[in-house]
Amino acid sequence: MHTLNNTTGSQDPNLDPIPSNPDQFPNRNLNHPQTRRPRGFAATAAAASIVPTESDVHNGNIGGIGGGEGSSGGGERGKGKREREKEKERTKLRERHRRAITSRMLAGLRQYGNFPLPARADMNDVIAALAREAGWSVDADGTTYRQSHQPNHVVQYPTRSIESPLSSSTLKNCAKAALECQQHSVLRIDENLSPVSLDSVVIAENDHPGNGRYSGASPITSVGCLEANQLIQDVHSTEPRNDFTESFYVPVYAMLPVGIIDNFGQLVDPDGVRQELSYMKSLNVDGVVIDCWWGIVEGWNPQKYVWSGYRELFNLIRDFKLKLQVVMAFHEYGGNVSGNVIISLPQWVLEIGKDNPDIFFTDREGRRSFECLNWSIDKERVLHGRTGIEVYFDFMRSFRSEFDDLFVEGLIASVEIGLGASGELKYPSFPERMGWIYPGIGEFQCYDKYSQLNLQKEAKSRGFAFWGKGPENAGQYNSQPHETGFFQERGEYDSYYGRFFLNWYSQLLIGHAENVLSLANLAFEETKIIVKIPAIYWSYKTASHAAELTAGYYNPSNRDGYSPLFETLKKYSVTLKFVCPGPQMSPNEHEEALADPEGLSWQVINAAWDKQLLIGGENAITCFDREGCVRLIDIAKPRNHPDSYHFSFFTYRQPSPLVQGSTCFPDLDYFIKRMHGDVHR
Known about the structure:
Blueprint: H1 40-48, H2 54-59, H3 73-112, H4 123-133, E1 137-138, E2 144-145, E3 155-156, H5 169-181, E4 187-189, E5 201-203, E6 252-255, H6 270-282, E7 287-293, H7 294-297, H8 308-319, E8 323-329, H9 347-355, E9 360-362, E10 368-373, H10 388-402, H11 404-409, E11 412-417, H12 449-461, H13 496-523, E12 528-533, H14 546-551, H15 563-571, E13 575-580, H16 587-593, H17 597-610, E14 615-619, H18 626-636, E15 649-652, H19 668-676
Parallel strand pairs: 6-7, 6-15, 7-8, 8-11, 11-12, 12-13, 13-14, 14-15
Antiparallel strand pairs: 1-2, 3-4, 4-5, 9-10
Family: Belongs to the glycosyl hydrolase 14 family.
Domain BES1/BZR1 plant transcription factor N-terminal: 78-225
Region (Disordered): 1-95
């Protein structure tokens, strides 16, 4: 049995804790060398952790615990056990306190600092983000360095010239006091020290005579400034920070208007197209975007493709030396909006649909959506012996073969794959022809026989066959979340059944993307593939995010619904195109729609960048004033991004031709120059 020792001076100094009260541990070796005094967070943690250790209890090094010669061993073991339990509780409290501090810092960095931190960021992610903000490079393995290393002297780096929202009032007061007390002081970082070490930050000496070394009374290092929630020193430098993001070149593509190719596959107005292309060239756009409609090219007979009108159009574009983005448009156009141009799905597909309407998406009332094919037939041979993905692949392969010369010479820069309603990866859950009006939550589109069989099979595999049906209390197209039993606060969406159904519903979307993209990579080898992601920002301020759920994005407030999809897109090296929200709404409109376009944009864009995806942008078809243009530029080229992330391209689109003078961007020329980095703010 281990004997407790209470002899003076016999204890191991390495096990001797640092006491806050010298009389607390009378047996402490006073000749033990002092360790370096901790600062900041380290000081807070050290003060909270001065408690007896388990080793001290066993070795009898703590006065009052090590029993005397006549003490009972059983009684001492009981005391030691109680001390260990107390120490466990104190450790739990310290850990909770540390996590609370970390959580507040991460929330502040995400909300105010424009730092793209992962959803489950730890302090390594925070330190890396701050190091990059200060001009350092941080590799994935933690290696930290500067690109232009100059080891023989101290290099001055300017701090942020704008006021950071991360800073509390205490930080601002500290910075102000520092500038007042030390007029010539600047923040210097030793070139040979790690950027994450607080000891590497020193205050330079004042230039005027009589000034000593950086005094302990400096406002920057005073105790009042080193609070637990302080992570960085926000000092206003006399040198402005270089905003390198402004100088990045973001290519701008202009979308040609729908209707220049008629329903028989012919170019309608070549002279008008030349005039439009000439005007685009004068604005210095980099290229154009054109939809290749499945309903036109393969409109009348299966596997009979008419490309003649597109060949004539592409030759005109080649004459103006403009790049070309081509959209594989597997959806209808004009079914939801008023206009003269209507492009349906191929006629032979609609004929099949008369006998088998379940090839189309279906809502709870049995109403069919003809915007695109049902994803549940991706692998069902219901299209004259072909499956859905075989039809898509044959169309893409025909295009690649027909225009091989344009791919070889590099005229076709990228191909966008339409994956759902409006060419976006989403369910057709907001159909205007069914009476939907913004900001209605929409309806689930899974009541066709193929989707229901799939759902029932999945429910049986989970052992809950009665889950094999869609929700019955999810409201109507124009319902609001609080009006439904499924989407309301603490509603059925967060029950075991709700989670099962929403996961299945969103996996159908992800599975469709994977099925089509795997074949698109075969058809368009070594060509950039683009997928368009919608901006469903209404109902975003509710817990359920009802509108996103009906569109196929399982993204309630307690779950990240975009990262699983982006993992799939990353597997196929896809470039994401995000439809940027329209002009700023009034506060009343925001409140009524429970909308948060900025919050959604932040989540989607940063989730994509976390997965190392390239992102492009596209404006909604709404008019933008000068302020709206600037907001789009800020989304595409975020200022002071720690990793200098920015969009890889931007697509400008509007309902009518540019030459008609009805541009929705009154400052379109300014917008393009800003995106190209030719002019700054």
